[in-house]
Amino acid sequence: MNEALKQAKKAYEKDEVPVGAVIVKNGKIIARGYNLRETKQNALAHAEIICINKACKKLKNWRLEGCTMYVTLYPCKMCLGAIKESRLDMVYYGAKDDKITEFDNTVTTYLENKECSDILKCFFKQLRKK
């Protein structure tokens, strides 16, 4: 999760919602990603999607079986769909989205991480001041 947080901090520095993700296979990080929606002006540029794309390219396979994702925030519906379609084994997330009341525990596990929550709270607090 610490590596995913490093990615979230990169997003924060670019004034992006600070969400970061990494994908691990056999104990090694094979892909990293962070939100780039504002930078790329692309609704699909979520940390999870970017990370999945990089992992598929690295493995030369759209099936990410045997891989685990660590992401700083519970994935949105679009990202959950991509996670399921890519066949990731499991996703661990560090912060819950207050707007989501039902969580898909078939592919996700909550690893409460105060830093994951704090970076998001700080970002939105600063955003409201602007």
| Number of DSSP helical runs | 5
- Straight-line distance between termini: 30 Å
Sheet of most strands: 5 strands, mixed
> How would you describe the shape?
globular
Helical percentage: 40-55%
Rg calc: 14 Å
Number of strands: 5
Tell me the strand percentage band: 15-25%
Q: What structural category arises from helix and sheet content?
A: alpha/beta
Helix and strand run: HEEHHEHEEH
Q: For the residues shown, what is the average pLDDT? A: 95
Strand order of the largest sheet: 2-1-3-4-5
Report low-confidence residues grouped into runs of 5 or more: none
Can you describe what's shown?
This protein is 42% helix and 19% strand. The chain is built from 5 helices and 5 strands. Strands 2-1-3-4-5 form a 5-stranded mixed β-sheet. Helix 1 runs parallel beside helix 5. The radius of gyration is 14 Å and the shape is globular. The mean pLDDT is 95.
Give me a quick take on this structure:
By secondary structure, the chain is of the alpha/beta class.
